[in-house]
Write a structure and sequence with these properties.
Layout lengths: L1 H25 L8 E7 L8 E8 L8 E11 L1 H7 L4 H7 L12 E2 L3 E9 L11 E5 L11 E5 L3 E3 L6 H4 L3 H14 L11 E5 L4 H12 L3 E6 L4 H7 L3 E4 L4 H7 L4 E6 L6 H6 L1 E9 L12 H18 L10 H13 L7 E5 L4 H10 L5 E5 L2
Parallel strand pairs: 9-10, 9-12, 10-11, 12-13, 14-15
Antiparallel strand pairs: 1-2, 1-4, 3-5, 3-7, 3-15, 5-6, 6-8
Helix pairs in contact: 3-10, 5-6, 5-11
Length: 379
């Protein structure tokens, strides 16, 4: 009857209201976003857009295989300037929908490598513990490491070599993994076959070039490098057998005697392709020791839309992350650690700056005033 219906409606309304009140009272309070310092690009207009932020949000774990790391030091690399000009922008814009710490395209935190201390671990992390001192590297399309805190997948992290400080540990993961990929994966060199190879490293003064020289020398190869006069002694100390000075006629004179190389590592890019070809034997190989070129950067609207749909389809249906390379940076860093512990590899830090000195650090990068690496300390 009507009175029973009214009673049911009244009971439902009162019960729902009471349940809502109890639910609000018992819900877990939302954790406030904590702020941190970070070096970021505020636009894709180049070096002038890079600045220090003091109100960036501290990232949070959103996958069980991730680590939250308190960054002690991170390196400013020339690739950060390229990223501030738009490198990897298309791919980053697509994959950021799976990164719950990225709310917008800009500002974009820069930095590809660093070192710090693990402060939080995901539920499926087994190889790391809170308090571990680690170093790490991340891809150009990922959010960067030049910040007080960073969230990374365990695949991009390794425990620091013993006996080195954070400034040194932060200075080489990105360059070392590039060099390892070029030497071991692409050139397939090892201590079993390198002694039979004549190797040229063109413009060995880059961060990657330093490790190319040391890796090839450690494997027993005969290493020739090209560099400027001021680095001649350094290259000899790193393991180069022959140093050809770019300012003199050494290079042309050497090649004119039909001295060709089995493997030529190009650290410059397309501008040096012709030279590297002339320096290589007929059956030799030219290997570009450079960051991975992203074809998606040249996609227009139509191709970009198709690419985006393909990535989302494969990730949604199969869980495949097409944007990640097969390279596991953490595995490579573990191998690098072994060689550093055996004194086979030597990183070199040129200057250490505070985040507030970012303009001075950028000036050094822009003017190529540094011999080693430029590190920012967040300690």
């Amino acid at each position: 009857n009507r009175s029973t219906l009214y009673a049911c409606c009244f009971g439902f309304t009162v019960g729902s209201s009471l349940g809502l009140v109890i639910g609000i009272c018992l819900q877990t309070p939302r954790q406030p976003n904590v702020l941190m310092k970070a070096i970021a690009a505020t636009a894709f207009t180049g070096i002038d857009s890079i600045t220090l932020l003091e109100d960036a949000f501290v990232p949070k774990l959103y996958k069980p295989t991730q680590l939250l790391i308190e960054v002690k030091c991170a390196t400013l690399d020339p690739i950060d300037v390229k990223i501030s000009c738009g490198l990897a922008r298309t791919l980053r814009g697509i994959v950021n929908i799976y990164n719950y710490n990225c709310q917008s395209e800009l500002p974009l935190i820069l930095g590809r490598e660093g070192a710090g201390i693990v402060v939080e671990i995901g539920s499926k992390v087994k190889d790391f513990e809170i308090g571990d001192q680690v170093y790490f590297v991340t891809d150009p399309w990922s959010s960067g490491t030049l910040a007080e805190y960073v969230v990374l997948n365990t695949k991009d992290v390794a425990k620091m070599p013993s006996g080195i400080v954070f400034e040194v540990a932060a200075s080489f993961p990105y360059s070392a993994t590039l060099a390892w990929t070029a030497v071991v994966v692409e050139a397939k060199l090892s201590n079993r076959n390198a002694h039979t190879k004549r190797i040229l490293i063109h413009c060995a003064s880059t961060g990657c070039g330093w490790f190319l020289v040391q890796l090839c020398a450690a494997f027993g190869a005969n290493v020739t490098v090209t560099c400027t006069n001021k680095l001649k002694g350094t290259m000899k100390a790193l393991g180069a057998s022959t140093v050809l000075l770019l300012e003199s006629g050494d290079v042309d004179k050497h090649l004119s005697h039909n001295n060709r190389f089995d493997i030529v590592f190009n650290t410059v890019g397309p501008l040096a392709t012709e030279f590297c070809s002339s320096a290589c034997t007929e059956d030799g190989r030219i290997i570009n020791a450079l960051p991975q070129k992203l074809h998606s950067d040249s996609f227009g609207f139509f191709l970009g839309s198709l690419y985006s749909m393909w990535i989302r389809f494969t990730h949604g249906l199969f869980g495949i992350e097409l944007w990640r390379s097969n390279r596991e940076n953490g595995v490579i860093l573990n191998e690098i650690t072994k060689m550093i512990d055996k004194k086979l590899l030597q990183p070199f830090v040129d200057r250490v700056y505070l985040p507030e000195e970012i303009d001075r650090a950028l000036q050094d990068i822009e003017e190529s005033n540094v011999v080693g690496r430029t590190v920012l300390s967040f300690e």
